[in-house]
């Protein structure tokens, strides 16, 4: 199997396929797999996938399980609602609701692919069926043959564009700014437990804007 893209999807697919005995090779456009992204939330469904891959215990080492998620007004920090997460997620959904740094999730998946061949600097420009084989083509003129080519090349996927002609992503005029802040700088109004090891996920909403926060990792 040839997987195009070594992001969250491509690496997770590689781990799953290898565990089921498939031979896998990954092709990634970037010159290196660096620290990309910021905090993300992994819902119980996502944790169940990592559990199936045998990675739940590893995830827990660098992830946080928020007590609750709460919504507060953006200007006064007034509580709108608080929804327990820790107390109910495992019981109701069979897995916890976690937050983590994308880079930690990515590094964990990267480690889990073991000795799977990973070719960097390989920008895929399309994939075709040639004499019954699946062939991925790359910008430098090279190609890779496999039984199946999996397009996991993200939001500007060359493979999806070729087969589904879905055009360029549409700008919705909604912009997300991301930043990472040391815990000791988090204002009290984000939540009294903000400085503990098991803080809340919070949403400050109002006036056409929202700010969400989730804990990532200890320093
Ligand atoms: C601001 C923000 C916040 C988010 N928060 C969350 C969250 O809290 N929880 C959550 O579950 N999700 C969240 N997401 C969504 C999540 O990041 C994506 O769903 C996920 O990263 C998609 O994984 P992917 O593997 O499809 O793509 P990516 O992770 O983008 O990986 C694609 C990979 O393919 C490579 N690639 C691209 N083009 C080519 C090519 N032509 N040839 C070879 N390689 C190529 C890229 O370099 C990259 O490594 C968030 C997204 C954003 C933008």
Structure description:
The chain is of the alpha/beta class. The protein is 23% helix and 27% strand. It contains 6 helices and 13 strands. The strands form 4 sheets. It has a 4-stranded parallel beta sheet, sandwiched between helices. It starts with a strand and ends in a 6-residue tail after the last strand. The mean pLDDT is 88. The chain binds flavin-adenine dinucleotide.
Low-confidence runs (pLDDT<50, min 5 residues)?
A: none
| Small molecules bound in the structure, each named once | flavin-adenine dinucleotide
- Helix and strand element order: EHEEHHEEHEHEEEEEHEE
- CATH topology assignment of the domain at 2-65 and 98-164: FAD/NAD(P)-binding domain
State the separation between the terminal residues, measured CA to CA: 38 Å
As an assembly, this protein is: single chain
The general outline is: globular
Task: Fill in the keyword field for this structure.
219 residues, alpha/beta, FAD/NAD(P)-binding domain, four-stranded parallel beta sheet, four-stranded mixed beta sheet, 27% strand, binds flavin-adenine dinucleotide
Helix/strand layout:
Elements: E1 2-4, H1 8-19, E2 25-27, E3 39-42, H2 44-52, H3 56-62, E4 68-73, E5 79-84, H4 89-93, E6 98-101, H5 102-112, E7 117-119, E8 124-130, E9 133-138, E10 143-146, E11 149-151, H6 158-164, E12 201-206, E13 209-213
Parallel strand pairs: 1-2, 1-11, 2-7, 4-12
Antiparallel strand pairs: 3-6, 4-5, 8-9, 9-10, 12-13
The structure holds flavin-adenine dinucleotide (FAD).
């Amino acid at each position: 199997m040839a997987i195009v893209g070594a992001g969250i999807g491509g690496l997770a697919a590689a781990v799953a396929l290898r565990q089921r005995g498939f031979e896998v090779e990954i092709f990634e456009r970037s010159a290196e797999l660096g620290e990309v992204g910021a905090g993300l939330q992994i819902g119980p469904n996502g944790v169940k996938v990592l559990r199936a891959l045998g990675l739940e215990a590893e995830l827990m080492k660098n992830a946080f399980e928020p007590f609750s998620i709460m919504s507060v007004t953006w200007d006064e920090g007034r509580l709108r609602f608080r929804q327990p997460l820790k107390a109910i997620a495992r019981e109701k959904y069979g897995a916890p609701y976690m937050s983590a740094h994308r880079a930690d999730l990515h590094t964990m998946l990267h480690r889990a692919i073991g000795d799977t061949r990973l070719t960097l600097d390989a920008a895929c420009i399309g994939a075709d069926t040639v004499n019954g084989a699946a062939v991925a083509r790359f910008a430098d003129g090279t190609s890779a043959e496999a039984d199946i080519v999996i397009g996991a090349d993200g939001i500007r996927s060359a493979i999806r564009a070729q087969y589904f002609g879905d055009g360029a992503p549409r700008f919705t005029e909604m912009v997300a700014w991301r930043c990472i802040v040391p815990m000791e700088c988090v204002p009290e109004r984000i939540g009294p437990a903000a400085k503990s090891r098991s803080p809340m996920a919070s949403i400050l909403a109002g006036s056409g804007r929202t700010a969400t926060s989730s804990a990532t990792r200890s320093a």
